[in-house]
Amino acid sequence: MLNFKLIASFLIITLFISCKQDKKNAISNNKIHAYQLKDIQLSSGTLQRIDSFPSKYIRSRTVDIWLPDNYSEAKKYAVLYMHDGQMLFDSTTTWNKQEWKVDEIASRLMQEGITRNFIVVALSNTGIHRQSEYFPEKPFQKLVNKDSIFKSAQLFNQGNFFNGPIQSDNYLKFIVNEVKPFIDSQFSVYTNRENTFIMGSSMGGLISMYAICEYPDVFGGAACLSTNFSGIVPEENDDISHVFFDYLQENIPSPKTHKFYFDYGTTSTIEEYYPRYAPEVNAVFAKKGYDTKNFKNLKFEGAEHTENSWNKRLDIPLVYLLKK
């Protein structure tokens, strides 16, 4: 009889704690409000917006979730996380009146049955803190002259390059520990590595590369367009890129379970420096056992460092990562 009472008491206490934890999670979710954005020009799909996604790691920011036409809870979708979220969908709202045309291209690929069904989570940058959040933190710590590099970077663009300590590790924690659990619980998506991808350009390419290396159990593929291997501002005597290649040699995940896509253009004051990095990128991945099935590094002759250049080839990495 006594044992029965003890067991009953234990079950009641366990149930009470469980209910409290569920309630706590519900309250946490209730603090994040997503609504359908009406005042936006989309060619297809809908955009759910969270105006200020809270974080204990970094500054809050806008997070948009693009859902394709006929999105249904009866289906499951892969998830693509993209940086610089404010530049992806509507050129009338961007600073340079250009966009990635994600909704147009993603919709076409799904409608034609080329890619699996997927949604896009668009993570807005925070302006002057973009570089601090996108510059890979562990490679930065390997720079023996990081203080002088940091100071020279601050001088660029009237001090608006880093604007504070490197925050990329915290930025990735924000994505993996805060945004992804919300997406997984609120949308009809696959949660496994094989259906979770990340993409960005320039510094966004660097942080995408860094993300899959830091969280190989979370991300199955990364698309890194016009990756800024110079780290800051490209120069003839570059003394930064070696830390990225050293980091890759130590941290590239298995080619059996991951895919990497890189590309680069040849025109503009930034893009013209990128072809020189291609041989070393190729060599690092080949040494780790990657081949054309799980690694691409493509050259686009004449392509510039702009959204209008990236949207012209966006279908290529999308198909590479998300092909049926």
UniProtKB/TrEMBL annotation:
Membrane-spanning residues: none
Gene3D superfamilies hit by this protein: alpha/beta hydrolase
InterPro entries listed in its UniProt record: AB_hydrolase_fold, Esterase-like, Mycobacterial_A85_antigen
PANTHER family named among the record's database cross-references: ENTEROCHELIN ESTERASE-RELATED, FERRI-BACILLIBACTIN ESTERASE BESA
Protein name: Esterase
The species this protein was found in: Yeosuana aromativorans
